[in-house]
Amino acid sequence: MEIWHWMFIVEVILLLLLTFGSYYARRLDMDKHHIMTYTAIIGQVLVFTFYMRPRILFLISRGFVSELLIIHAILGLTTIFLSLFLAYMFLKDKNDYDLTKLRYTRPIMILTYFMWLATFTFGTIIYFRAHILR
Ligand code: HEM
Fold it and tell me: Ligand 1: which of 3, 50, 52 to mutate, judged by most atoms within 8 Å of the beta carbon?
């Protein structure tokens, strides 16, 4: 099986991890929330570093850059930046946080989740167009 099919499966798993991670936060099970969201973030950074970054550089060098891919890349970079910012905000205090911190980080978490979902949707459209519906 070609690499993009594997990467699509990995992306589905990462999105499921993030979705279940959000669900556990709502149930106030913070240990599961942290394990799932940190795993999703680390996984996304690895996929970006070793697959999407080299792939976009290759596509740019061949002139194969669509508007969808540009939107995907901008949304994706912002999402990764926001998720790393959130991870830093909590890990620097060893996940020991107060309500003041949650008051401004919670909207960022919700925004990050929906941006991740939007990035995933654009990536999925690109994937189906380039590798499935050819
Ligand atoms: C949260 C962040 C991101 C998510 C959830 C995400 C999701 C996806 C998905 C689901 C695919 C389709 C699977 C595949 O082609 O193997 C994909 C492909 C791709 N993504 Fe991302 N992505 C993210 C960030 C980025 C970033 C930051 C860039 C570049 C700056 C990027 C560039 C690409 C490229 C070049 C492809 C392959 C397009 C192709 O082969 O035609 N992605 N992404």
Answer: 52
